[in-house]
Design brief:
Length: 289
């Protein structure tokens, strides 16, 4: 059966009662999860079907971020100032469904998906939002679901890497290992579809890969997903360094190594799951570092 028909049948017949009285729906092709926008009298909601552990993690992370934005968490005045969210940041507001633990429902964010051109035009705003997210590890307690799942190992190892890329993988791994990590709370999956922008705001969605890792992972994600060249990636790192007030000589070099690890991780996953690989192969072939 056609995937769209399966998805349409799901939204028409299997929504919990409290979400069944919608006026209209539009299916979203996110690849991994059946997803849709459902329009009600009061507002439009985003809903997707995911494994229970993903639903629980995203709900916990989004609830925590919403609390920080509402200033309801008890912080010292100094920490509260550092944790003050930028006005430009948009986050989905989560809604919890007790009757189905495999559904995630949130508010709908406004904006357009970033292109490479719009990313380069809005680098200061994107970096401002990322610096805020990354520094949360310094100022407040992380959700238990993040703490319990921490794993500081690289997301792929040499056994996952095709023979043609084993040398570049090892070089990137050694460079990362030989430099100090800048541990951060990261989004983890800054692909084009997960960043929504307007002239004044940046919205981040799909938090299932949120974790603690070197903050340069998020920068590497942007480099690969938006196919930044070496000069453009260096410019991104410079803006980020300035906004986070860091003076790290090896910052860009290590960020470039993380981009190699990210590209190889995605390439391995895509090959195993019969997904598009061209973006990652192009990035690795065009490495100028």
């Amino acid at each position: 059966m056609n995937h769209d028909l399966i998805t349409a049948e799901f939204w028409l017949n299997y929504l919990p009662e409290q979400y069944a009285d919608y006026l209209s729906f539009s299916i979203i092709d996110l690849g991994r999860h059946p997803s849709a926008f459902l329009t009600y009298k009061d507002k439009t909601r985003f809903i997707k079907q995911v494994p229970e552990h993903v639903q629980q993690k995203e709900y916990a992370v989004l609830s925590w971020l919403e609390q920080l934005q509402s200033k309801t968490e008890t912080l010292t005045s100094e920490r509260l100032e550092k944790a003050q969210p930028p006005l430009e940041l948009q986050l989905p507001q989560p809604e919890f469904i007790h009757s189905r633990t495999d559904l995630l429902v949130t508010s709908k964010l406004d904006g357009f998906h970033l292109t490479k051109l719009s990313l380069l035009e809005q680098l200061p705003l994107v970096c401002k939002v990322l610096v805020y997210i990354h520094r949360l590890i310094e100022v407040t307690h992380l959700p238990n679901i993040i703490v319990q799942s921490l794993n500081y190992e690289l997301p792929c190892d040499i056994n996952d890497v095709a023979p043609a890329y084993k040398n570049v993988f090892q070089q990137a791994k050694d460079n990362i290992k030989n430099n100090v990590a800048i541990l951060s709370f990261i989004h983890g999956d800054l692909s084009c579809g997960n960043i929504l922008a307007s002239d004044l705001t940046i919205g981040l969605v799909d938090w299932e890969y949120a974790t603690v890792r070197d903050g340069r992972w998020d920068l590497a994600t942007l480099a690969v997903e938006f196919e930044l060249n070496a000069k453009e990636f260096s410019g991104l790192c410079e803006v980020y360094l300035k906004q986070r007030d860091l003076q790290e000589k090896s910052f860009t070099s290590v960020a470039q190594s993380w981009s190699v690890i990210y590209a190889l991780t995605c390439l391995s996953w895509a090959q195993k799951n019969n997904q598009e690989t061209n973006r990652y192969i192009r990035f690795l072939q065009n490495l100028e570092y």
